[in-house]
Amino acid sequence: MRDFRYTRASDIDSAVRAGRSSNAKFVAGGTNLIDLMKGAVEQPEELIDVSRLPLDRIEPLVDGGLRIGAAVKNSDAAAHPLVRDRYPLLSQALLAGASAQLRNMASMGGNLLQRTRCHYFYDTAFKACNKRSPGSGCAALEGERRMHAILGASERCIAVHPSDMAVALAALDAVVRVRGAASERTLPAAEFHRLPGDTPERDTNLEHGELITAIELPASRFGANAHYLKIRDRASYAFALVSVAAALDMQDGRVRQARIALGGVAHKPWRARRSEEMLAGKSLDASALRAAAEAALLDAKPYPDNAFKVELAKRAIVRAVLVAGGAA
Ligand code: SF4
Fold it and tell me: Which of 152, 148, 223, 209 is nearest to 178 (CA)?
């Protein structure tokens, strides 16, 4: 591991000032970043420890929403009564991620910033990785692509985003609150991560030096009917082949509104807006569900070794919506 300077930030303003330095990175739980540094994938000159900042509270908002501080641990957020009661989808997604030990260390802000688990990205013996080394190529394009993207990929990168939590946040219309040098702003969770395009080295729409301070969830009508379905190679401690965050606002056996997002299929959580529109006003019958699932995958462009994900995603959508609606 390359030598680096370590600074423990004492307040948010000084953290943001320090974060402007060109090769500085924020660290909280460090569950992904430290691994990347050990493997020389990330080589920051300075780490700014933001884990002791006063960003560790979960508090209700006056409009019925909920603010979760960026330093809250994943396990604490998953177990919090307000999260479990109002946003069970988020609690389920958090508990589907990583292992108990990692969830005890990982922060909410850090979860959003974890990087793809594309094995070519992690293994520096492969020189071609546009995400690690812009302009070097993409080893996965001619390599093993079983875990890779079927939606929204580019010729520069076909990696997928690994977070389960971010999939639930995209479905729930959460926003991410960030502080920069001059101001504060919010980004919709569904637009926080980027598609790879020509710049796969950029995972998110954060500007350099911006610090995530909180995740805010709007008042929700989806607490009673939600389900996070994660399909993976092992029952635990494995990244999603496909996951589905489904939340329904139901009335008299019909869907008033649906929220569906997919994980494991794209460079960002993939909101299935066509499917949501098709389900509005419908009962949960098999033909309506299958049609909505087909619509979500219309633009899929798989490779031979990950073509199975297309049908898997369709079936996962049907299953997740049925469970969310109490019909399975
Ligand atoms: Fe790198 Fe993306 Fe290609 Fe993986 S898919 S090797 S992360 S450029």
Answer: 209
Distance (Å) from CA 196 to ligand 1 centroid:
10
Residue 318 makes CB contacts below 8 A (sequence gap 6+) with 286, 289, 290, 293
Q: Which of 296, 226, 236 is nearest to 258 (CA)?
A: 226
**Pairwise CA distance, residues 215 & 186, whole Å:** 9
Atom of ligand 1 nearest to the CA of 158: 5
Tell me the HSE value of 23 on the side-chain side, using a 13 A CA sphere.
Answer: 9
* pLDDT tens-digit readout, 249-289: 999 999 999 999 999 999 999 999 999 999 999 999 999 99
Residue 197: which residues within 8 A CB-CB, separation 6 or more? Answer: 154, 156
Interatomic CA distance for residues 47 and 32, integer angstroms: 13
Ligand 1 binding pocket, CB closer than 6 Å: 116, 118, 120-121, 129-131, 138-140, 157-159, 200
Q: In the structure, what pLDDT confidence band is assigned to residue 328 with cuts at 50, 70 and 90?
A: confident
Q: How far is CA 66 from CA 58, 73, 227, 232, in A?
A: 7, 16, 19, 30
CA 152 to ligand 1 centroid distance, Å: 14
Give the CB-side neighbour count of residue 38, counting CA atoms within 13 A. Answer: 6
| pLDDT tens profile 185-204 | 999 999 999 999 999 999 99
Ligand 1: which atom is nearest the Cα of residue 138?
3
Write down the pTM of the prediction.
0.98
C-alpha count within 13 angstroms, C-beta hemisphere, residue 144 = 6
* Domains delineated in the chain: 226-324 (3.30.390.50)
Residue type (1 letter), 161 = H
Tokens 């501080």, residue located: 69
Cα 145 to ligand 1 centre (Å): 10
Nearest CA residue ID for atom 2, ligand 1? 157
From CA 125, how far away is CA 123, in angstroms rounded? 5
* Residue among 165, 185, 162 at smallest CA distance from 175: 185
- 177 - beta bridge partners? 186, 214
